[in-house]
Amino acid sequence: MSYGFEFTFLRRLKHFIAIHMTRVTVAKGDGIGPEIMDATLKVLLAAGAQIQWDEISVGEKVYLSGNTSGIAPESWDIIRRNKVFLKAPITTPQGGGYKSLNVSTRKFLGLYSNVRPCMSLHPFVRTKHPVMDVVIIRENEEDLYAGIEHQQTDEVVQCLKLISRPGCEKIVRYAFEYAKQQNRKKVTCFTKDNIMKQTDGLFHRVFDEIGSEYPDIEKEHWIIDIGAAKLADTPEAFDVIVMPNLYGDVLSDIAAQITGSVGMAGSANIGEECSMFEAIHGSAPDIAGQNVANPSGLLQGAVMMLNHIGQASVAEKIQNAWLKTLEDGIHTRDIYKEGVSKQKVGTSEFANAVIANLGQKPSVLKTVSYSANVALNLPKYVRKPSAKKVLEGVDVFVHWTGLNPDELAEKMQKLEFNGIKLSMITNRGIKVWPEGFEETFCTDHWRCRFKPVEGYSIENKDVVELLNKALQENIDTIKTENLYSFDGKSAYSLGQGQ
Ligand code: NAD
C-alpha cells in the first residue's frame, strides 16, 4: 500500500468515524460521580458506542468558587452545542442561595419530559414487588417548580403553582407516544383535581383530550393520594404513569426504591432540542472514593441516551449484558445479599463484569430488544385561538392583623363604587365573610373578592381605582388576582364553603 493511498484511507476513515460519532457532553459531578461515570464510559466504549465527549466541570467546586448556579457560562455553550448531556450526580451545598443545577438545566434547555423506568429484577435484587415494571413520566418544567415564591405578610408565604396548556399537552403526548413505541398497554394519569380544579384540572382534561387520540391504549385517572397508595402496594397494576412535576418527583423515587434499590434506576430528561441523562440517586458523599458505589443507575441513564441518539443496538447489547451480570450474582455492596449474590464487587469490577458479558443475554430475566427505539419526535405545540376573556371581578389580598372578619368587611366596603361590591372574604381559602364560623382560625392574610352586582360590569381601570381607594383608606394590599371567564365559563376557584 502506497503512503498516498494509506493517507487518503486514514483521512476517509477519520471522516467516516467523525460523521457517525455523536458528540455528547459529560460531567463527572461530585462524590461517587467520577467513579460511576468512569465505569459507565468504560462499558459504553467496550460495547462500541459511537460517541465522543467533551467533559465539563459542574457542581460543588463550581458552586464554592462563587458561582451560585454551579456551572460556568462556557459549559452552557458546550451543552447547547452538543445537545446531549450525560451527567453524574452533584452535591448542592446547603444554604448560601445555591440554585439547583438539575432544575436550572431542565428549565433552561426545555427538558419537559422526565422518564424513569422502574423495574424489579427479582429474584436477583431483593424486592417486595417481584413483577413491577412501571415507567413514570413526570412533567419537568412547571408546577410548583416554577420557583416563584413570596412572603406576603408576617405570617404567610406563597409558592405559585403554574400549569400551562402547552406543558400539559407536551408531557401527555410524550407519555402516549412512549407507550405506543414501547408497546405498553396502559397510561395512567395522577392528579389532585378534586382539590385543584384549575391547575390539576387542566392536566386531567388534557390527558382525556389527547388520550382519545390513542384508542388502542387503555387510559385511567387516579386521584394522586389513593393512586400513590396503590402504586406503593400493588405496582403491578400500573404500566406508564404520567403526572405533574411535584407528584412525579416524589413518586418516581418511591417507585424506584420499591423495585429494590434507588441506586439502580436511571432517568432521561427530554426536550425538543436537547436531552440530559443521569442516575436518579445523589452524589452519595458517604461512600465516595471507595470504589463501592453501584454504577447501574448512571449506566441505565446512558442506555437511555444511546437509544435516544439512534444507537439502539449498542444500548441493547449493554442492557442484556447488565441483566446477565446481575443474574450471575455479581453485585455491588448495596444490593449484595447472602444466598442470592455470588460475588461482592466494587464499582470498577462491576463494570468489567458487564463488559465481559457483552454479547450475552440473561436467561431468567427478560432479554430486552430495542430495535424499535428511536428518539420520539413529537409535533411542536401549536397555540390555540384565543378564547373570549371577560373580567368578572377581582380578588384583593390584604395584610391585616385584626381578628374579626366583620370588621375587615366594614373597612373593605368603603372601597365599593360603580356597582362593584365586596362579595366575599376568605382566609387561607376558607370563607369567613359573610357568614363565617367563629371557629375558623385566621391568619393576617385575607382575600377580599369584589364583583359587580347585576347590571354592572368591571374593567381593568376599576381594579386600579379600587387599589387607589385602598391606599387612601390605609389598607395594606399585597396583590390582586383578576377573575376571568373564558368563553363564558368562570375560571377561578370559589371560596371553600361558598
Ligand atoms: P444520595 O442518593 O446521594 O444517597 C442516599 C443513600 O443511598 C446513601 O446512603 C448512599 O450511600 C446510597 N447510594 C446512593 N447512590 C448509590 C449508589 N450508586 N450505590 C450505592 N449506594 C448509593 O442522597 P443524599 O445523601 O440525600 O444526597 C447527597 C447529595 O446528592 C446532596 O448534596 C444532594 O443535593 C445531591 N443529589 C444530587 C442529585 C443529582 O445530582 N441528580 C440527586 C439527588 C441528590
CATH class of the largest domain: Alpha Beta
Compute the number of strand runs.
Answer: 20
Unique bound compounds:
nicotinamide-adenine-dinucleotide
- Tally of separate helices: 14
Q: Which outline best applies? A: elongated
Helix coverage percent: 25-40%
CATH fold name of the largest domain? Isopropylmalate Dehydrogenase
What structural class results from the helix and strand content?
alpha/beta
Per CATH, which architecture of the largest domain? Answer: 3-Layer(aba) Sandwich
Distance between the termini: 90 Å
Architecture overview:
- The protein has 14 helices and 20 strands.
- The strands form 4 sheets. The protein has a 10-stranded mixed β-sheet with strand order 2-1-3-12-11-4-5-10-8-9, sandwiched between helices.
- 34% of the residues lie in helices and 22% in strands.
- A hairpin with a 5-residue loop joins strand 6 and strand 7 (157-159).
- It has helices at 3-20, 33-46, 60-64, 73-82, 101-108, 165-181, 199-211, 224-233, 245-258, 296-308, 312-327, 347-356, 405-413, 460-472; strands spanning 22-27, 51-56, 84-87, 113-119, 133-139, 149-151, 157-159, 186-191, 218-223, 240-243, 266-270, 275-279, 330-332, 343-345, 389-399, 420-427, 430-433, 445-452, 476-486, 489-490.
- The radius of gyration is 27 Å and the shape is elongated.
- It is an alpha/beta fold.
- It folds into 2 domains: 9-93 and 100-356, Isopropylmalate Dehydrogenase (3-Layer(aba) Sandwich), CATH 3.40.718.10; 389-490, Alpha-Beta Plaits (2-Layer Sandwich).
- 44% of the residues are buried.
- The model has no long low-confidence stretch (mean pLDDT 93).
- The longest helix is centred in the first third of the chain and has 18 residues, at 3-20.
- It binds nicotinamide-adenine-dinucleotide (NAD).
- Nicotinamide-adenine-dinucleotide (NAD) binds at residues 32, 89-92, 102, 263, 278, 281-287, 293-294, 297, 334.
